[in-house]
Amino acid sequence: MLVFRIFFCFCFKINSMNKPIIWIATSNEDKVNEFKVFLSNFEIKTLKDLPDYVEPDETGTTFAENAVQKAQALSEHIQGMVVADDSGIEVEALDNFPGIYSRRWAYPITDWPTINQKLIDKINVETDQSNWNAQMISVMALVDVTCDKVETFEGIVQGKISHQVQNHHQGFGYDLTFIPDGSEVTYSEMGPAKKNEYSSRQIASQKLKTYLGGRNEKN
């Protein structure tokens, strides 16, 4: 009996030291690095851990629909918690374009400096150039197959578009042109640590962490 109790306590201590696993439905290294910061109390698994996995097409009409779609698709291949993110930028003067098409509207162009420049050109050509307001949106979907639960968490940051692409060598996506309110520089000029203080993904992640913390307390 004493041996069993010692063994049980030893195993419990080892298991309690292990971080809970959370799967992130992306292979984007930049996003993965941000998630590792935002969800540092979890062990992060990504699509790189499932080399044969084929990502679904994004057919939703909102960020939330796309995020849920990606999370549910991955949840069919694993046991546990899955988080998927769908993010983008909405430019006020362009009727919130590109929105959910932020990553693919300029296809076949895929390099971010060129895509950012095309967005600036679009504002210059299609508007009177008086309104450069924009917002960054990130929606995270949590799917937990262990309890058949789906939740979404939204982060929004208001700001504006820079008149020119800034700092090609740091950041990704629209970091090269988006200036959040309260700052005079783009995300890319801030650097990763400072950007995370203003990030829509950070806001959504914090809501997710609060939800998970509250759920753990109930359990």
TrEMBL record:
Family: Belongs to the HAM1 NTPase family.
Pfam families named in the record: Ham1p_like
Gene behind this protein: rdgB
Taxon lineage: Bacteria, Bacillati, Mycoplasmatota, Mollicutes, Entomoplasmatales
Keywords, comma-separated and alphabetical: Hydrolase
GO molecular function: nucleoside triphosphate diphosphatase activity
Hydrolase among keywords: yes
CDD domains with a match to the protein in the record: HAM1
Protein name (database record): DITP/XTP pyrophosphatase
